[in-house]
Prior knowledge:
Layout: H1 8-22, H2 36-45, H3 52-55, E1 56-59, E2 73-78, E3 81-86, H4 92-99, E4 103-107, E5 113-117, H5 118-141, E6 149-153, H6 156-171, E7 177-178
Parallel strand pairs: 3-6, 6-7
Antiparallel strand pairs: 1-2, 2-3, 4-5
Helix pairs in contact: 1-2, 4-5, 5-6
Amino acid sequence: xxxxxxxxxxxxxxxxxxxxxxxxxxxxxxxxxxxxxxxxxxxxxxxxxxxxxxxxxxxxxxxxxxxxxxxxxxxxxxxxxxxxxxxxxxxxxxxxxxxxxxxxxxxxxxxxxxxxxxxxxxxxxxxxxxxxxxxxxxxxxxxxxxxxxxxxxxxxxxxxxxxxxxxxxxxxxxxxxxx
Length: 179
């Protein structure tokens, strides 16, 4: 990918990744024989011959059932970059967490403690382990250990992506991250 801070292509990829997260359980088959999910992934990465299972890995909140519950987000390999996308608020428990504006401590990967929005912290903690596992798997499968990472999300997902980026930056300060 190019080194632009902002490009319409990168914005499009981020928006489509969020759309994928919101609709991760769609199973309809389109005219071209692809599922909606496969079609959306190929739209993001721009390669019609790509193995969608190799470039887009869903991650889930604790106690979620893959295939039944919506993914919390996706780790997506786009060219030489990794895109981590979080969906926004769905359901009453997430609305309640959106409204829990008091602060709570979070221990970052470097051991530092900071206070952040309690509800956003809870939502991040529920998907952190799964997101890290998906990120590790993506890096391993595509030999992309040093790939720059872009974090994105919608609504609640935007807040969670900021926390995830901060946590990843403190864990690996020499890597390139973008929000």
